[in-house]
Amino acid sequence: MAGKVVLYYFNGRGKMESIRWLLTVAEVEFDEIYLTTREQYEKLLSDGALMFQQVPMVEIDGMKLIQTKAILNYIAEKYNLHGKDIKERVMINMYSEGLIDLMEMMMMLPFIPDPKEKLDNIESKAKERYLPVFEKVLSGLIYLVRGKVSCADVQLLECTLMLEERFPGILRDFPNVKSFQGRMSQIPALSRFLLPGSKRKPQPDQAYVKTVMEVFQMKQP
Ligand code: GSN
Questions:
Q1: CA-CA-CA-CA torsion sign (125, 171, 81, 31)
Q2: Of 7, 86, 129, 180, which has the fewest CB atoms closer than 10 Å, so is most exposed?
Q3: Shortest-distance Cα residue to atom 22 of ligand 1
């Protein structure tokens, strides 16, 4: 029997957070090993656990998976969160890739010394490029694809919550997205995840940035 799912990453959101959300909606329990030192990372490298010397890494079903999107796709396929055929899947992947692009822009913010310009750029891209797409799709549908929850819906919830943390009120002009967010938050596993004390990670702080920079031996900007 396959053991428990184990996540290898920092004690912070980064690229692992969407994986945490997806495992949560699939009601899969997981443990986490947090990288806190360079030595720990080097040990994973010397064990050959990281194919491209990068995290996230997820132990699941006897495999050590890397590459965030590959991991998300595996979980989505396994737990029926990836559409019923290739036409649904390609739509799910298109939404998902757009959301990942937007979330990756936000992920970089704590590592940028003077993020004001970047913040403004993200806000306008969110309002003018990304949110209008989802507002339109959700005008006639409960979920993004075929009225059934998929990994893209989970990422849209994660992304819109992240946007609201940075830009309160950003969903004011996107009522369909706002009510979607309410619906998604009521899925029992997700409503538990949104409560304090869950495995959901807080917004990145200085300690998180410091740990990441030390582990990867990044230079202070
Ligand atoms: O999506 C992915 O999993 C890969 N395409 C990229 C993974 C990645 O960049 N991982 C970073 C840490 S998470 N932050 O962005 C990483 O392991 N960097 C160390 C390195 O030497 O590249």
A1: positive
A2: 86
A3: 54
Position in ligand 1 atom list of the atom nearest CA 71? 3
Query: 45 CA distance to ligand 1 centroid (A)?
Result: 13
Question: What are the boundaries of each domain within the chain?
Answer: 5-79+194-215, 86-187
- Cβ proximity of 213 and 220 under 8 Å: yes
User: To test ligand 1's pocket by mutation, which of 8, 11, 15 has the most ligand atoms within 8 angstroms of CB?
Assistant: 15
Which residues lie with the beta carbon below 6 Å from any ligand 1 atom? 14-15, 53-56, 67-68, 216
| Predicted local distance difference test score (pLDDT) of residue 57 | 98
Tallying the residues shown for the chain, one arrives at 221
In this predicted model, what pLDDT tens digit does every residue of 127-178 receive, in sequence order? 999 999 999 999 999 999 988 999 999 999 999 999 999 999 999 999 999 9
CA–centroid distance, 155 to ligand 1, in Å, is 19
Assessment of whether the complete model's pTM goes beyond 0.85:
yes
CB 55 within 8 A of CB 7: no
The CATH classification number of 5-79+194-215 equals 3.40.30.10
Distance CA 125, CA 99 (A): 12
pLDDT band at 2 (very low <50, low <70, confident <90, very high): low
Into which CATH architecture does domain 86-187 fall? Up-down Bundle (1.20)
